[in-house]
Amino acid sequence: MPKVVSRTSFLKDSLDVYINRALTNWRIPGVAVCIVKDNNVVLMKGYGIKELGLPEKVDENTLFMIGSNTKAFTATALAMLQDQKNYRWTIM
């Protein structure tokens, strides 16, 4: 009789493989991932290490510097507000 694999464990295992491959291919030391569905945390996990050459691993509580990504977050939030008709772009 073949082993039955749950959908949840298959997706998690597939995600682990994908993320670990991406860390290698993109030469990224580490990343923290959080997946939320229907206001519930489905996965919260760290992958890799915090800094090249050091052994400390990334976990779900690792803080990362986000650089100038705040501009992208702000633009995305404004676009979402416009889509919900709560904001209107204006041209000056």
UniProtKB/TrEMBL annotation:
Pfam families: Beta-lactamase. It comes from the Bacteria. This is Beta-lactamase family protein. Gene3D superfamilies: DD-peptidase/beta-lactamase superfamily. InterPro entries: AmpC-like, Beta-lactam-related, Beta-lactam/transpept-like. Residues 25-86 form the Beta-lactamase-related domain.
